[in-house]
Design brief:
There is one protein chain. By secondary structure, the chain is of the alpha+beta class. The chain has two domains: 8-152, Aminopeptidase (3-Layer(aba) Sandwich), CATH 3.40.630.30; 162-324, Gcn5-related N-acetyltransferase (GNAT) (Aminopeptidase, 3-Layer(aba) Sandwich). Helices cover 30% and strands 27% of the residues. A twelve-stranded mixed β-sheet has the order 1-2-3-4-5-12-6-11-10-9-8-7, with helices on both faces. A hairpin with a 5-residue loop joins β8 and β9 (244-251). The longest helix has 16 residues, at 25-40. It starts with 7 loop residues before the first helix and ends in a 9-residue tail after the last strand. The relative contact order is 0.16.
Length: 341
């Protein structure tokens, strides 16, 4: 469908724009999947994952999301904004458009709303700190790219979806002396796992320190407090004193790679780097997925990762199979809150 580019006033006249409510989880997820099928051929979104996102601490869907409907009630545009935790220096938006309406100006309209909404929260950031608005989207999602660019956002970073297809048993890991691997004991290892991952990712682009209590509660909401938690797929590289030096947190199912295992997080503390722990965890993960009959393994990585993760994954035989682009815009100039800007 080809539609003329509408002005904000025309969109408000011809469509119904309203805040989201928790009752909109299913119709929103349906739009997400309509968009993902159009862009990638696969339904990538799950209703329960959407519900988990919408019910996280400090997220008020009525304030942070806007929906655009046709007069007959079809959802054709969605945007969400995130400003959930201190220090409030990196703020997020996420835009989804119905394929038949991606050229109608709805994306541009929603991005203007998102910027205005996020500008209201700048006062929460430390005085004098730089404040960013960021948004990620698939590289093939040109309509969302245009909408981001319409408010002055620029693409400054790329992330790869990496994959490997097993053609036989993966090589067995070789662990440094004094290091062995075990799985997550829920209730015993929770806080140590969070602290290890949070510390390891301090060296990654975009990391901003969050107070422990808030960060830990959020991590538990996303990782621990879920019906499909698989602690036997979280692998911990520990030393002789059982100190965790590295974590591989995995999931056995992911909608966009249904025949593959998914390595959601791989992090190694500085003191454990350069010893083969990262490669050991990666190969151990491959071996477990192979044992479970998975076709291969997938993961996401910053294309300019500062800790050498992309080199590690490439060395292990992985290759890019998709790409996300990260757009950004400075909402307030100041001293960098993120040392990796």
């Amino acid at each position: 469908m080809t539609l003329a580019l509408l002005s904000p006033a025309e969109i408000e006249e011809q469509f119904i724009v309203r805040p989201a409510t928790l009752d909109d989880v299913e119709i929103a997820t349906a739009l997400f999947n309509k968009s993902s099928v159009y862009l990638t051929g696969i339904e990538e979104f799950d209703i329960e994952d959407t519900r988990r996102e919408w019910t996280q601490e400090n997220l008020k869907v009525e304030d942070n999301m806007r929906l655009v409907f046709t007069p007959d009630g079809e959802l054709v545009g969605y945007i969400e904004t995130w400003d959930l935790r201190p220090p409030h220096t990196i703020l997020y938006a996420w835009l989804i458009l119905h394929p038949d309406y991606e050229n109608a100006g709805i994306g541009e309209y929603l991005m203007q709303w998102a910027e205005q909404r996020l500008r209201q929260t700048i006062v929460k950031a430390p005085e004098g700190a730089e404040v960013w608005m960021r948004m990620g989207t698939l590289d093939v999602n040109t309509a969302v790219h245009r909408a981001a660019e319409s408010i002055g956002m620029t693409c400054g970073r790329h992330f790869f979806k990496m994959g490997i297809e097993f053609d036989g048993p993966p090589p067995a890991p070789v662990w440094p002396e004094g290091i062995h691997v075990r799985t997550w004991v829920v209730g015993q290892d929770d806080e140590a796992i969070y602290r290890t991952v949070d510390t390891a990712f301090k060296d990654h682009w975009g990391h901003v320190d969050t107070p422990f209590e808030e960060g830990y509660r959020n991590w538990r909401h996303w990782v621990v407090e879920r019906d499909d938690l698989e602690p036997d797929l979280t692998f911990l590289a520990v030393d002789e004193n059982d100190k965790i030096l590295g974590v591989s947190y995995c999931e056995s199912k992911r909608l966009d790679m249904p025949d593959y295992g998914w390595l959601a997080t791989l992090g190694v503390l500085r003191e454990g780097r350069g010893k083969g722990i990262g490669l050991g965890l990666l190969l151990h993960t491959f071996g477990e997925f192979y044992r479970r009959g998975k076709k291969g393994c997938g993961l996401g990585v910053d294309a300019e990762n500062l800790t050498g993760a992309l080199r590690l994954y490439t060395k292990a035989g992985m290759a890019p199979v998709g790409q996300w682009d990260n757009f950004g815009k400075i909402l307030r100039e100041g001293y960098p809150a993120d040392a990796h800007e």
